Amino acid sequence: MALDVAGVDILRANRGPLVMEVNASPGLEGIEKTTGIDIAGKMIRWIERHATTEYCLKTGG
């Protein structure tokens, strides 16, 4: 899918984890509330660190 960021819904099953779906534009409210982790803030900090001309030229972004 060539996504830098995605939401992946995983279901625990007897035979191991199953990927239910991959979302290019994930909703974060539920997971942030459940975990207490500011995921949107972490994503913004990652973008700020990597949004450089050099990084974009290297990765084709």
Automatic annotation (TrEMBL):
GO CC term (a single one): cytoplasm
GO biological process, one term: SOS response
Protein name: Ribosomal protein S6 modification protein
One Pfam assignment: RimK
InterPro entries per record: ATP-grasp, ATP-grasp_RimK-type
PANTHER family assigned: RIBOSOMAL PROTEIN BS6--L-GLUTAMATE LIGASE, RIBOSOMAL PROTEIN S6 MODIFICATION PROTEIN
The species this protein was found in: Escherichia coli
Annotated GO MF terms: ATP binding; metal ion binding; ribosomal S6-glutamic acid ligase activity
Keyword ATP-binding annotated: yes
Residue ranges of every copy of the ATP-grasp domain listed in the record: 5-48
Keywords of this entry: ATP-binding, Manganese, Nucleotide-binding
Cited Gene3D superfamilies: ATP-grasp fold, B domain
